[in-house]
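FYI - complex with uridine-5'-diphosphate, inputs then prediction.
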Amino acid sequence: MKVAVVVGTRPEIIKMSPVIRALSSRDIPYYVLHTGQHYSYNMDRLFFEELELPQPDYKLDVGERFRGHGAQTGEMMKGMEEVFKKDRPDVVLVQGDTNTVLAGAITASKLHIKVGHVEAGLRSNDRSMPEEINRILADHVSDYLFAPTQGSRENLLKEGIPDERIYITGNTVVDAVYQNLEIAKKREDVLERYGMKEREYALITAHRQENVDDRERLEKIVGILNSLPIPALFPMHPRTANRMKEFGLSIDNPLVKVIEPIGYLEFLVLISKARLILTDSGGIQEESNILHVPCLTLRDNTERPETVEAGSNIIVGVDPEKVIENIEEILGNKEKEIKMRSAAIAFGSGDSAKKIVEYIIGR
Ligand code: UD1
Ligand code: UDP
């Protein structure tokens, strides 16, 4: 039994880290293939260092050289096919919904290698999102579908995927949070370093293609930040930084501090001590639920409806008036804030990686 673990972007490195640890601790032969979709130090290597992951055995360096979905995905497939033929695994594991996932799943399935999709069955029901297309296609060529929740299992069943391929595992993000939060908390000076005070700031991220590549939507997000009534920290994704420059937009609110993307340990501390989160990230909707911090999602839909049902997350869109109204309601209504903070954790108890690895070796 040999496993190939495919990663390419920041969230995949974070959410695959518990799986890599579980494979290592059971002495299961595996290798890590990195497509290089993310390549800047603080979107990539920083996470390998912080999470003490082994260096990738194969690196394709696609992200910096190939832009555009077709070119990027095609080049990844070409590179992965060479690796999988030379060093043939029994199972290829992919995680999430990026172009790396699509490329890994299709390449492996064409070589008749079993595909395991970690975080299978999420659906926003919005096919204009590149991630939705990637998820659907990856799920339909996968042999093992590791669905985080009952809801994601049902999404798969509705599309005709046989139940015997689906295994509910929880989400490995819970493992990642629990494995790293204690280490992270030892970094006592994080808030001081960024000039924030516990429970007095908002933590912001925004990077979705449909939000930041669309001038009008990005202008609205900037409008929200320019009227934000509390101090805020915004580690800005490189995609967003590029678009801000291209569209000539700037954040003029002195309460909002824009910084480069930061490491996972600092980011976990910043989530756990925030008053609220404003984000369009998938992973951060989950982490705010796990760490009991109210989340307002700057999108029109979510593939994580469990966070909304649990009560930790509200889908607010990007209309400045509506979003500020929602923020003020949380800031001014203790009862509502406490209710959001006490929402149940929706993604399992932190043993997802163990379940995934045990399932694979049992095949
Ligand atoms: C990708 C995923 C998205 C995921 C996100 C995580 C797809 C279709 N999208 O989006 O689902 O939420 O990763 O962050 O796979 N860039 C850098 N340095 C980097 C990485 C990116 O400067 O290390 C810049 C480049 O200009 C690049 C742009 O960001 O062209 C977008 O990167 P890309 O990987 O294409 O998409 P993301 O927006 O990061
Ligand atoms: N994250 C981080 N540093 C940052 C911003 C985010 O470590 O500056 C982490 C965050 O905790 C989460 C993951 O990156 O685990 C989310 O990645 P992203 O939002 O890029 O992708 P998505 O989850 O939307 O696919």
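The pocket of uridine-diphosphate-N-acetylglucosamine (ligand 1) is lined by residues 9-11, 37-40, 43-44, 63, 67, 97-99, 130-131, 207, 238-239, 242 (CB under 6 Å). The chain has a mean pLDDT of 97.
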